[in-house]
């Protein structure tokens, strides 16, 4: 995308529309480079000091599951399994490490075979999608079984716990990002 030392980005209407090219001037008059291009050209977790992003969301359009699954496995091998969440990771905006969107948080979690989660609640409302495996969730006074491709919701401040029969991977999204930004997200473990 860059030609020689001129560092001028190739442009196309489609690429600009979907946020891959961010051809804007920074406050100091230096052209801003997209995080996508900066990450590719400058390395993981490093950006040039003159980098200024105008995006208010992650520039990434996809977070490939293969890489996500590998990250979960690495963390499971090298870190403790949390008593509530198993191994849980937050999808992050590569520009600033924040939430993927200003109002929506996205997570993925792995539960080992036979996992029995401790009871938990928070102020966020969450939607869970079962990617792999099966198990059950106790939410309030009710217990529901789940399996691959099921979707379930946990309302705000509802006590819940998740158990897995076999290995299980769950994707979830919630309003945590908005609540954190407003300063009122809380949890009770």
CATH architecture of the largest domain: Sandwich
* Annotation field: number of helices: 4
- Helix and strand pattern: HHHEEEEEEEEEHE
- The beta-strand count equals 10
Number of domains: 2
State Rg: 20 Å
Portion of residues in helices?
10-25%
Q: How large a portion of the residues is in β-strands, by DSSP E?
A: 25-35%
Termini gap: 48 Å
How are the strands ordered across the major sheet? 1-2-9-4-7
Instruction: Provide the CATH top-level class of the largest domain.
Output: Mainly Beta
The CATH topology of the largest domain is given as Jelly Rolls
Residue-averaged pLDDT = 81
Shape designation: globular
CATH superfamily of the largest domain: Jelly Rolls
Structural class: alpha+beta
Can you tell me the residue ranges where pLDDT is under 50 for at least 5 consecutive residues? 1-36
Largest sheet features: 5 strands, antiparallel
Keywords:
three-stranded antiparallel sheet, disordered N terminus, single chain, 189 residues, Jelly Rolls, 10 strands, 2 domains, 4 helices, globular, five-stranded antiparallel sheet, alpha+beta
Structural overview:
With 189 residues, the chain is α+β, with helices and mostly antiparallel strands. The protein has helices at residues 13-17, 35-42, 65-78, 176-182, and strands spanning 87-90, 105-111, 121-122, 126-132, 134-139, 142-147, 151-154, 160-164, 168-174, 187-188. It has a five-stranded antiparallel β-sheet with strand order 1-2-9-4-7. The chain has a three-stranded antiparallel β-sheet with strand order 6-5-8, with no helix packed on it. The relative contact order is 0.14. Mean pLDDT is 81; it is low at 1-36.
């Amino acid at each position: 995308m860059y030609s020689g030392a001129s560092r001028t980005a190739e442009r196309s209407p489609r690429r600009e529309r979907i946020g891959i090219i961010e051809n804007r001037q920074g406050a100091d008059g230096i052209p801003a480079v997209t995080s996508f291009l900066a990450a590719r050209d400058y390395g993981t977790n490093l950006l040039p000091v003159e980098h200024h992003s105008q995006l208010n969301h992650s520039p990434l359009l996809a977070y490939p599951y293969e890489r996500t699954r590998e990250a979960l496995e690495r963390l499971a091998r090298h870190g403790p399994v949390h008593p509530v969440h198993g191994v849980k990771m937050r999808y992050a905006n590569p520009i600033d490490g924040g939430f993927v969107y200003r109002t929506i948080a996205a997570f993925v979690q792995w539960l080992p075979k036979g996992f029995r989660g401790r009871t938990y609640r928070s102020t966020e409302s969450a939607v869970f999608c079962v990617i792999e495996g099966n198990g059950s969730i106790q939410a309030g006074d009710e217990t529901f079984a789940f399996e691959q491709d099921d979707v379930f919701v946990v309302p705000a401040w509802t006590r819940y716990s998740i158990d897995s029969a076999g290995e299980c991977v769950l994707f979830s999204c919630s309003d945590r990002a908005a609540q954190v930004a407003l300063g009122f997200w809380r949890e009770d473990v």
